[in-house]
Each structure stands twice: as C-alpha cells, then as structure tokens.
User: Fold this.
Amino acid sequence: VQLVESGGGSVQPGGSLTLSCTASGFSFGEADMAWYRQTPGNDCELLSYINSDGSTHSVDSVKGRFTISRDNAKNTLYLQMNSLKSEDTALYYCVGLTPGAWGQGTQVTVS
Assistant:
C-alpha cells in the first residue's frame, strides 16, 4: 500500500492550492479516503473524508473552503483548498481509511 501526496507549497492568504494523492497497492475505488493535517505540537486533525460511494464530509473549520474529491480511474484523491488562511499552515496527509495507510505528507504554508 502506498499513498503519495503532492501539490503542497507556499501561498498568500486568500489563495488556493490543490493537493493530490496517488494511491497504489489496494483497491482504491473500494476504499474510504480522507485528508488530515498536523501542526507542530498538535495532534492530527481530520479535515474531510470521502466514502467509496462518493459521499463526503468536512469539518466545520474547512467546510465551504475545502473540497475533497476522487478520480477512481486515476487512483487519485484530491483536496481543493480555497480562501486559505494562515491557520491552514500545516503538514497535510492523505489517509486510506479502509487499508489503514498514511502518506508521507505535504507541507502547506500560508503567509
């Protein structure tokens, strides 16, 4: 099982970024997937998840700004992030809930 995130970087407040996560080693289309983030000294925080049937859920802090989606044909998970704030600065992780796997993380810095 492998999850590889990309798309992180530095952006000004109010800007946008799209994170991608390419999955391999398991049946991606049958897996429930999620995005988490972690700031220094804090626990990982669930942001959004998407079930295998395409249903989604996002936490209040990112609802309306972040959108999770998936392309099963490409084995890829996405997180579209708009209206970024300084408090969104964190290490973002792609997580395969069903296989219980985490990516290595991609850094997002908003300043």
Q: What stands out?
A: Residues 64 and 82 are 9 Å apart (CA to CA). The longest strand covers residues 17-24.
